[in-house]
Here is the input.
Amino acid sequence: MLVALTAALAAQATTVVVQCAADNTLYSNAQGVLSNGAGSGLFVGLNGLGLTLRTAMRFNVAAAVPAGASIVSARLTVRSNKSNYVPLLEVTAHRVLQAWGEGTSVAPSGGGYGAQAQPNDATWLHTFYPNTFWTTPGGDFVAQPSTTLWLPAVGTVSSPHGPGMVADAQLWLDQPSQNFGWLLKADDAAATVNAHRLSSRTATSNRPTLTITYLLPGQTSTWGTGCPTANGTFTFGYVGTMTGGSTIQFTYQNGPPSTFAANFFSLGLDHPGTVLQPNCSVYLPSTLELIPGQVFPLDAAGAASFTWPVPLIPGGYFVTQSAALDSSPVGLALTNAGVAKIL
Here is the structure.
């Protein structure tokens, strides 16, 4: 029983919560002398002195996720503690392209106006104060945002599921030397004071976190939800370990009654999904080639089960989703997606 239980647990995806390893605020001071490396707050937006504030934060993904894993999802969570700006503030997160520092500066009076930068602090001009500089004042980062956060004046918010965060986290796992974290910024053209104070990693609570779900070779998981049918919610699942050269069981429940279905494979996952109809989404990305699988029948309860030969592709990561003929307006019902990494 213990061996069987261990094998079952080993076949499931793993989720870890990664604590912030470093953070700091960049204040758009022309002399580049303001920072808040050890302060309990992080800042983003425009403050009352007309300074643009940006937050840099980094998470040590390689210390929390085993080498060789495939990351399925990654979500950033931050806490907004204070702002006089009532509407939700749009904040984008961008992958940083240079190493930067966190010194001992602590900004007074809430921290929104910064403190004198200390050695190795990141500032608007410096990656490491006082002798190492950004190529571009305000930080060097990828222009395309990895995700978008909508910050309330007070409250905790997590980034939506999406491919940008996964790609960044996977890069930092595979190439730890390229992990310089994210830069969080609001619209630089804003003329209204909209600065938000976030909890930093030195705060007593609500520190920034990165929640990662990953697969090791042999592990499987599911993603999203299936479409509603006359039998319930169309559901797909794996039974067994994803070992190359062996077989694994595909199981289906609550599909359309007494019809035919087919499964499809892809090498990637569309995390938010493309809505086919209400509560019914396609999770296989349209930008990657779809690989058709087999056609199979569903019984009156919308159920099916069969074994599938696992290809001999050690370390291969893939996604599967199935579609069944039904009487809905689009003529199809979809399962949730399955994700797997081959041992």
About this structure: The two ends are 22 Å apart (CA to CA). The chain has a mean pLDDT of 95.
